[in-house]
Amino acid sequence: MHPTNLEKTLSDLKSHLTGKSFPHEIGIFLGYSLKDVIGFMGWAPLPFTCQGPWKIFGDPYQVSG
């Protein structure tokens, strides 16, 4: 992802959507907490703590990103 280049980021997301696997990073675009997206993707050792409309990792009251 390229947070400083919106057009490149959207282009990358589009190519991921047409790829073989679902791009879980789309949660960032949908407004999910960055820590929850990172935890779901397994990029950080955050424990799964509860589930609301999406899976919540780490402190459910801590919002990031």
Q: Tally of extended strands?
A: 2
Name the assembly state: single chain
| Overall average residue pLDDT | 83
- Largest sheet properties: 2 strands, antiparallel
List low-pLDDT spans: none
Give the overall shape, derived from the CA principal axes: elongated
Give a written overview of the molecule.
- The protein is an alpha+beta fold.
- It is built from 3 helices and 2 strands.
- It has helices at 6-17, 26-29, 34-41, and strands spanning 48-51, 55-57.
- Strands 1-2 form a two-stranded antiparallel ribbon.
- Strand 1 (48-51) and strand 2 form a beta hairpin.
Could you list some keywords that capture this structure?
65 residues, alpha+beta
In short:
The protein is α+β, with helices and mostly antiparallel strands.
SSE layout and pairing:
Elements: H1 6-17, H2 26-29, H3 34-41, E1 48-51, E2 55-57
Antiparallel strand pairs: 1-2
